[in-house]
Amino acid sequence: MQIRITKQEWRVSVTIMHLSGNLDASNYIEVIEKAQDLYAGGTRDVLIDLSGVPYVSSAGLMSLHTVVLIFADQSSRNQLKYSKTVYLCVKWVGETNI
Predict the structure, then answer these.
(1) 2: which strand partners?
(2) Phi, psi of 31 (to 5 degrees)
(3) Among 2, 73, 77, 96, which is least packed by CB within 10 angstroms?
(4) CA dist 64 to 9, 10, 13, 46, Å?
(5) For residue 62, which phi and psi values (nearest 5 degrees)?
(6) For the chain, what percentages of helix, strand and coil (3-state, to nearest 5) are there?
C-alpha cells in the first residue's frame, strides 16, 4: 500500500489521499494513522482516491469508515449521511453504530 498526499484548490482547499495497492489487514492501520495525522495538522476537507486500489478487505472497509469518523470529528457520528448503498455495505460487514 502506497499513500500519496496532494492538495487541490477548488472552492476550498481539498487534501487528496491517493491510495494504491490492496487495502487489507496488512496495512489498514496506515490509512487510519495518515488520516489522524492530517486531521491533527488542520486538514478538514479530504478526498480518498481509490482508483489505484484493486482490492478492499473488510479491514480496509473499516479503515475507510474510521477515516469518515475522524473527519466528522467523531462527535457527529450519528449525524453522518450515508447513501443507501454505503449504509447497506457497512451494515453487511457488521458495523452497527452508523
Answers:
(1) 20
(2) -65, -45
(3) 96
(4) 23, 23, 21, 12
(5) -60, -35
(6) 40, 25, 35
E strand map for 1-98: 2-9, 13-20, 46-52
* pLDDT tens for each residue of 72-94: 875 444 444 556 666 666 666 66
Q: How would you classify the pairing of strands 13-20 and 46-52?
A: parallel
Max CA separation in the chain (angstroms): 36
Nearest to 57 by CA among 32, 34, 28: 28
Percent of the chain with pLDDT over 90: 61
pTM over 0.85: no
CB 86 within 8 A of CB 95: no
Residue with cell 473527519: 71
Query: Measured between alpha carbons, how far is 50 from 69 in angstroms, rounded to an integer?
Result: 18
Distant-in-sequence, close-in-space partners of 34: CB < 8 Å, separation ≥ 6:
3, 5, 17
**CA-based angle 54:46:18, to the nearest 5?**
30
